[in-house]
């Protein structure tokens, strides 16, 4: 099985590639968007079928694979998945151990395959509390996939948005004087080990029926479009993913600006947005507002 479709090398969108039998309305040809995903509902999915919660997480990895495979074909250039929040340490030791093991296996077993398919891996979050073997797997996977650049696949692990902002403030304040010109954003990236730099989140999807952010990417989601799905994560399909992307493509993003103004969002200099959504949107803005 291909982790990523061969189409990844030519990710420009055509209308039928984003259309669905149930949704023949085409989307705009948006490319290179950053999608954040809160994969919620594994525990409920398993318990409702009489299985332990850990079984839901295992099935959650299957769902994750199909979305990763589909993402580049749908114009997604960066995918950031919330795999383990800093608050998830409160869960039973067995569940925590299972989650750490799933991540380690994924990174160990899929790094080469990712590189071959143009997928660059990056684990963001705290690294000081990760099990040693997971940390090694992270470093190895990031090194192996370093040259890939078609899809940037980020797992947020031991991640807390508020912690990262606090840590960044500490780093930034400490570094001032020598680096007055360094933007605060850099400190955030440093605090969470983000490499490469990526633009802000364009679309934030949460499965599982809850409608909250749970400390996920508060800085980077400042202007994210939000999409909440009732579907529990192990059942989340490519069709559900398309539904979110299709809704996103019909949103009118104004970034607080007026007609014709450029949005105030960050795009790293190396990060090309071919036919960028932002460029097009800036000229399509019709109304004032947020
Ligand atoms: C939330 O569902 C999900 C998690 C805390 C973990 C998500 C992790 C994975 C899908 C697998 C990670 C593996 C890799 C390879 C990155 P929940 O358990 O809170 O569900 P509930 O709300 O139904 O209890």
TrEMBL record:
Upper classification of the organism: Bacteria, Pseudomonadati, Acidobacteriota, Holophagae, Acanthopleuribacterales
What does the function comment of this entry state? Catalyzes the condensation of isopentenyl diphosphate (IPP) with allylic pyrophosphates generating different type of terpenoids.
State what protein this is by name: Isoprenyl transferase
- Indicate, by first and last residue, each region the UniProt record lists as having compositional bias (Basic and acidic residues): 14-31
Q: What class of enzyme is it?
A: transferase
Q: Which family does it belong to?
A: Belongs to the UPP synthase family.
Q: How is the cofactor bound?
A: Binds 2 magnesium ions per subunit.
What species is given as this protein's source?
Answer: Sulfidibacter corallicola
Which catalytic residues are annotated? 40, 88
């Amino acid at each position: 099985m291909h982790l990523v479709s061969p189409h990844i090398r030519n990710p420009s969108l055509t209308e039928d590639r984003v259309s669905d039998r149930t949704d023949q309305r085409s989307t705009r040809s948006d490319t290179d968007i950053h999608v954040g995903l809160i994969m919620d509902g594994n525990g409920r999915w398993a318990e409702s079928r009489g299985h332990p919660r850990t079984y839901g997480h295992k099935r959650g990895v299957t769902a994750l694979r199909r979305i990763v495979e589909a993402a580049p074909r749908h114009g997604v250039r960066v995918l950031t998945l919330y795999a383990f929040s800093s608050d998830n340490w409160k869960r039973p030791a067995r569940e925590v151990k299972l989650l750490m093991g799933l991540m380690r296996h994924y990174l160990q077993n899929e790094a080469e395959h990712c590189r071959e398919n143009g997928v660059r891996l990056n684990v963001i979050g705290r690294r000081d509390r990760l099990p040693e073997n997971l940390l090694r797997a992270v470093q190895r996977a990031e090194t192996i996939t370093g040259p890939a650049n078609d899809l940037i696949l980020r797992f947020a692990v031991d991640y807390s948005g508020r912690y990262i902002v606090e840590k960044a403030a500490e780093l930034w304040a400490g570094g001032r004087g020598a680096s007055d010109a360094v933007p605060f954003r850099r400190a955030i990236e440093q605090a969470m080990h983000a490499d490469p730099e990526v633009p802000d989140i364009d679309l934030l999807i949460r499965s599982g029926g809850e409608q909250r952010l749970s400390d996920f990417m508060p800085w980077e989601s400042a202007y994210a479009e939000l999409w909440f799905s009732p579907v529990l994560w192990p059942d989340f399909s490519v069709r559900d993913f398309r539904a979110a992307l299709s809704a996103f493509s019909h949103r009118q993003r104004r970034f607080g600006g007026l007609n014709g103004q450029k949005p105030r969002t960050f795009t790293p200099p190396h990060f090309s947005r071919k036919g960028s959504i932002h460029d097009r949107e800036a000229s399509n803005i019709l109304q004032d507002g947020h």
